[in-house]
Amino acid sequence: MSKLAAYPVVKEYKLEQEYRFELPEMYRKLAEETLRETDEIRVQALAHMREWIVNNKHIHKVRMDDSFLLRFLRAQKLSVVMACEALERYLTWRKMYPTWVKGASFAEPIIRQIYDAGALSVLGQDSAGRTVILIQTEPLANWNTTPMARVVMLLVETLLEWEEVQIGGLLVLLDYTGTSKKLFEIWGMTELKIIMEGLCRAYPLQYREVHGALVPKIGIPVVEQALSFTPPKFRELVHCHAAVEDLWKHLEPSITPTKYGGTLDLDAVNKKFADRIEQLQSVVLGLDEMEIDLDHYSALWDEQNPDLMEAKAFKNLSFD
């Protein structure tokens, strides 16, 4: 795969060509049935959102391309007002907690090391159009929270460049087999607030289902604490299982790893997505160039998230 160049982050950005829907027909139908997205509505929504951005004096630099704006519109079922609010939350979160996102790429050795440990895998899309993510938590106890968070956010930013993810959403499977208590001990309450706020409120991710299996007894209070920082609608999607075999009932054979009785080679899958991360490295790093009036938005953030005010101190931390 050849590497893609970063997108411009200027409001005056002129589109080189009109948007073309190039995904399989299944996704067109899915977008219309679940997101209210038609060709006509999409064109109008993009135009209105761009107009709002241009007139917003608090947003200085931002991507204006279709793919970027559509991730917010699709997450809000093509509601322009809600998509604009979602964009503001996203930009604010990134600027408030740069140690977890800024400069994240495989050029940072620890990020590549954590990814190569195989804790995070993108298994592919199922017949319902969902992108399936497998998280095996056992390897994650070897690192501190900041580099772990940077790997997660790099994965998320890369996924959001896929329109399949924007439309079909995510099916997340967490396998806690063999996880040591260290993993749960290193996550403090403030850090849990920040990461869950990012993954469930600030980033335009559409979760379809989340399944976890074999959470150790010592980890249950931490998981419950993390979920307390998520919206009620997200918590309704979370299911816990006593046996790891219960996870694979939600997987189709073609995307079930060999270690769980399927035919999917996890090493090959992880290598394929690593190539995708490399291809999009400049695109993801280009997000760091976006600029907003942080004083304005952090004040609004404090009003809307009073329990996260103390977490603002994290923006000045160094990498672990």
Characterization of the model:
There is one protein chain. The protein has helices at 25-35, 39-55, 66-75, 80-96, 109-116, 145-160, 163-168, 181-185, 189-202, 220-228, 232-235, 266-279, 281-286, 294-304, and strands at residues 59-61, 120-125, 131-136, 170-175, 207-213, 238-241, 291-292. With 320 residues, the protein is of the alpha/beta class. The strands form two sheets. Strands 2-3-4-5-6 form a five-stranded mixed beta sheet. A hairpin with a 5-residue loop joins β2 and β3 (131-136). α3 crosses α4, α4 crosses α14 (294-304) and α5 (109-116) packs across α6 (145-160). The longest helix is centred in the N-terminal third of the chain and has 17 residues, at 39-55. The protein is globular, with a radius of gyration of 19 Å. The two termini are 31 Å apart.
Q: How big is the Rg?
A: 19 Å
Q: Give the beta-strand count.
A: 7
Strand content: 5-15%
**Biggest sheet record:** 5 strands, mixed
- Mean pLDDT score, rounded? 93
Q: Show unreliable segments.
A: 311-320
Outline type: globular
DSSP helix fraction: 40-55%
Q: What structural class do helix, strand and pairing data support?
A: alpha/beta
Number of helices: 14
Order of helices and strands: HHEHHHEEHHEHHEHHEHHEH
Distance between the termini: 31 Å
Spatially, the strands of the biggest sheet line up as 2-3-4-5-6
